[in-house]
Design brief:
alpha+beta; Aminopeptidase; 2 domains; nine-stranded antiparallel sheet; six-stranded mixed sheet; about 30% helix; about 30% strand; elongated; protease
Length: about 475
């Protein structure tokens, strides 16, 4: 871990972030970071415990003179999205994140940085450890598995927390204050298929789509970025229609909440079409790269002949259904909000496509701030996949967070921000899945707000956190703590 990170200001924040990033913390594998956080709370002599689902709660009394203020919940999630570049050798289960400073940005070498939500968690840790920061009574809530199912928030029981105000430190633009967010549901389509012997005189190719930006499937879905699964399907469709291409394997995308950056397919065509197939593919590749030259300048599509001809390929009838279903399935923005300018209301991310050994799996994450619209799109996807024989399951559904423009804590934050920066903040709702809406189901009277420092490229190896923004954000947090309303 580079010492240059620990020397950044504010040192309290960056040192805690460095400590946290030394601990492996993939979603659903949070044992090490849970133990780390419990050891941290206990080392400070603070009340520290796990709830039934393994969220960690740490309580700290008010500092002298702040005892009459409302108790606040400071909340962040312990897990992080694990993504790396194909050429990066890294074991997320055992290694800490390798960080470095690049101008005004902190980055990681070839992997996600974990600033989402590590900077929020580090902020809370620094406040808990501090001896000179004024604050009211604090309940620090560190949830688990936010990135792959909101498990911690969904299973936090009512009555554990006593705070009246919740500050969620998990947004990614420092001039925004979030008062609402989208809910989501996983839409997973699966089916089996028969494999058939590869015809004689076949030639094999490996098609690779790579170099896409990727990114957060909520916050970045409106940017017109390329989806590796949709681009690959377009190539397979053309190859099948014109040359009888047959698929042996497909592996596209990775995490449900990350826009897929890469896809690889192993295919065959009849030897008689060898040169014509490659020529045709190069024309399509040129068209696709021209379409994405602005948003995806590093897009690379490779078609390489392979000496290893697969022994078996997909049944042609199932293959045709698969390709047409993926072509039909909606990806990207489905509807913009009619109530809040520039807010995506409903979207879908075709996140993962796996075809191998007689099994198909297509994983989607559908998001919406309107519950009925969420299931409208989910049912559209379900219909497309069921028409070609898939079993479709909805899982991991979680609610959105309905904006409250009359929130008392919103008024506090807006006034402080305007005083510090001589301009008003943007009061927004976001298309990501924040935990506030879920937590509000068991704590309906809690006044909630979300904010954070500027982080770009979350959920991708291009994730980076602004150093100057972290300084601005830290100053904002300090004054908020001093101005929590009286009971």
């Amino acid at each position: 871990m580079s010492q240059e990170i620990r020397n950044l200001e504010p040192k309290q924040l960056w040192n805690k972030f460095a400590d946290l990033n030394a601990v492996p913390r993939p979603s659903k594998k949070e044992d090490k970071v849970i133990a780390f956080m419990k050891d941290f709370g206990n080392s400070l002599g603070l009340e520290t415990f796990e709830d039934e689902i393994r969220n960690v709660i740490i309580r700290k009394p008010a500092t002298p003179g702040m005892e009459n203020r409302k108790t606040i919940v400071l909340q962040g999630h312990l897990d992080m999205v694990h993504q790396k570049n194909n050429d990066t050798v890294f074991d997320f289960d055992t290694q800490g994140i390798d960080m470095y400073v690049d101008g005004d940005w902190v980055r990681a070498r070839g992997t996600t940085l974990g600033a989402d939500n590590g900077l929020g968690v580090a902020t809370i840790m620094a406040i808990l450890e501090s001896k000179d920061i004024k604050h009211p009574a604090i309940e620090a809530l560190f949830t688990i598995d936010e990135e792959t199912g909101m498990t911690g928030a969904l299973n936090l029981k009512g009555g554990i927390l006593t705070g009246e105000i919740l500050l969620n430190l998990d947004t990614e633009e420092d001039d925004e204050i979030d008062i609402g967010c989208a809910g989501g549901v996983d839409v997973t389509a699966t089916r089996n298929y028969n494999e058939e012997e590869t015809p004689e005189d076949s030639v094999a190719y490996v098609i690779t789509v790579k170099g896409l930006n990727g990114g957060h499937s909520g916050m970045d879905i409106h940017k017109g970025l390329g989806n590796a699964n949709k681009i690959m399907n377009r190539l397979l469709f053309d190859g099948f229609e014109n040359f009888g291409l047959q698929v042996a394997e497909i592996s596209g995308g990775s995490l449900r909440n990350a826009i897929p950056r890469e896809s690889v397919a192993k295919v065959i065509v009849a030897g008689m079409y060898d040169e014509a197939f490659v020529f045709d593919m190069q024309e399509i590749i040129g068209d696709i790269k021209a379409e994405y030259k602005t948003t995806e300048p590093n897009l690379a599509i490779e078609i390489v002949k392979s000496d290893e001809v697969p022994a078996k390929v997909m049944d042609l009838g199932v293959q045709e259904g698969l390709i047409r279903a993926i072509y039909t399935a909606h990806n990207g923005v489905y509807r913009m909000s009619p109530d809040m300018a520039d807010l995506v209301e409903t979207s879908n991310n075709i996140a993962r496509v796996i075809v191998k050994d007689g099994e198909i799996s297509i994983q989607n994450l559908t998001r919406s701030s309107v519950e009925s619209s969420k299931f409208d799109l989910a049912n559209a996807l379900r219909s497309a996949f069921e028409l070609f024989g898939c079993e479709v399951v909805f899982s991991g559904s979680y609610p959105g967070w309905t904006p409250n423009v009359n929130s008392p804590i919103l008024d506090v934050l807006v006034n402080i921000y305007e005083k510090q920066n001589n301009e008003k903040p943007k009061v927004v709702a976001c298309h990501a899945g924040l935990e506030c809406g879920i937590l509000g189901t068991n704590y309906p009277d809690m006044d909630m707000i979300s904010f954070g420092p500027t982080i770009h490229g979350a959920h991708s190896p291009d994730e980076r956190a602004s150093i100057s923004s972290a300084q601005k954000y830290w100053k904002f947090v300090m004054e908020i703590l001093e101005n929590i309303p009286v009971k």
